[in-house]
Amino acid sequence: MQYSWKLECIWLLLWSLNLIADLDVPVDTCNAEYVFETVFSLHSKQELLDESTLKPTSDILDSLDFIYRAHWAVREAQINHLEVPSSLDEGVVYERHYTLNWLVNYMDQEWEEISTDT
């Protein structure tokens, strides 16, 4: 189960490389079939590199700002025993926050050490 959540990280990385057009509000898990088809089945590493372009920094930072706020709302709800707002999926929010922090090199942390402070 722990490793299946990393599909959410891959989904966000595909978005950051313009291989997925838009990120939806994190209320549901990603399209795992698309991840497997894109990364593991249909494309070689070189094909993925050739098709990829990094999103503008401003888009990545805007997404980080949104997901930081969403994660803060999730944690506040957990601490205060309230319903998570807007049907946010707590796992998806966490994995996106984790991945975005890695993308922006938050606190110079390596992948295994990324923190998701709120």
One letter per element, helices H and strands E, the order comes to HHHHH
State Rg.
15 Å
Strand content: under 5%
- Number of β-strand runs: 0
User: Which regions are unreliable across 5 or more consecutive residues at pLDDT < 50?
Assistant: none
Main sheet makeup? none
Helix content: 55-70%
Average residue-wise pLDDT:
93
Taking the alpha carbons of the first and last residues, their distance comes to: 24 Å
**Content-based structural category:** mainly alpha
The DSSP helix count reads 5
Shape: globular
Oligomer: single chain
Describe the SSE topology.
Elements: H1 6-16, H2 32-41, H3 45-51, H4 57-79, H5 90-103
Helix pairs in contact: 1-5, 4-5
Description:
It contains 5 helices and no strands. Helix 1 crosses helix 5 and helix 4 (57-79) packs antiparallel against helix 5. The two termini are 24 Å apart. With 118 residues, it is mainly α.
